[in-house]
Amino acid sequence: MEIVYPPVVGTAKAMFRVLDLKIQVEGAEHIPATGGAVLASNHVSYLDFIFCGLGAQPAKRLVRFMAKKSVFTHKISGPLMRGMHHIPVDRKAGNAAFHEAETALRNGEVVGVFPEATISESFTVKGLKSGAARLAAAASVPLIPMAVWGPHRLWTKGRKKELTKRHVPVIISIGAPIEPAPDGSAETTTVVLRKRLSELLDSAQRAYPEQPSGPDDTWWLPAHLGGTAPRPEEVGDAAPAGA
Predict the structure, then answer these.
(1) What is the pLDDT of residues 34-49, one digit of tens each?
(2) How much is the pTM?
(3) Cα–Cα distances in Å, from 77 out to 71, 80, 82, 118?
(4) Residue 33 and residue 141: Cα distance in Å, rounded?
(5) What span, in angstroms and rounded, lies between the C-alpha atoms of 27 and 39?
(6) Would you tell me which of 8, 121, 132, 198 could form a disulfide with 40, CB atoms 3.0–4.6 Å apart?
(7) Alpha-helical segments (H) within 20-145
(8) Are 48 and 39 a contacting pair, CB within 8 Å?
(9) Residue 36 φ then ψ, to 5°
(10) Cβ–Cβ under 8 Å, residues 94 and 66
């Protein structure tokens, strides 16, 4: 029985209504109504997991996110994370988290992964870790790409959080499941995943209904769209050669 997760979702939705966030979910039909799936998202803010989870709500699914262990030991977030059955990742013992996530997938859960591992300061898709592709292959479940755009205007790396900012548009775009690579390689699948995430993110960025309010507000746009966010190569966000 889910005791903690539904009230947390309800509270988040209520807060979004109060703030009048303009949330748009596209492609929700790609998330299966039953059975396991790996949801792989880009990472632009500290709030991404909330919006990724919201993207699964039309399918009435609760997403179990993989997150660093320190979040689970925090006195405030820890009880919530454990109560929602998210999956702690200890980088010194990564196999344990992988096996826990695989078990959850085989039990029909949706597992959320941020394959960039850290927030992209350039607001483009960084080079990806192969864990999402390996998980999907190991559990024989769909690998579903997702892009979120807009939450970084509320709270992101290197910027003051503005959690009470109102009327901010948020786009959550979900793509079709990615077929396993013909050669069975997680690395090959990861290259495809990065391409699909980049396409979803670029489409969301170009469709975004707001533009910066002035020269001092261009920080939240990537450089290739005329913003003043750092270029990928300036902050180590560029993908490795061949990716």
Answers:
(1) 999 999 999 999 999 9
(2) 0.95
(3) 6, 5, 9, 19
(4) 13
(5) 13
(6) 132
(7) 48-55, 69-73, 77-83, 94-106, 131-139
(8) no
(9) -75, 155
(10) no
Strand partners, 38: 111, 143
Q: What is the maximum span of the chain, computed from C-alpha positions, in angstroms?
A: 50
Contact 55, 172 (CB under 8 A): yes
Q: Confirm if 180 and 137 have CB atoms less than 8 A apart.
A: yes
Query: Residue written as tokens 């699948």?
Result: 189
Tokens of 64: 């179990």
Q: Which residues contact 177 (CB under 8 A, 6 or more apart)?
A: 30, 37, 142, 143, 144
Can you tell me which residue has the tokens 């996530």?
101
Contact indicator for 173, 200 with CB cutoff of 8 Å: yes
pLDDT tens per residue, range 123-134: 999 999 999 999
Element (H, E) at 196: helix 186-207
Tokens of 241: 């050669």
Tokens read off for 60: 């009435």
Q: What angle do CA 101, 42, 70 make, to 5 degrees?
A: 50
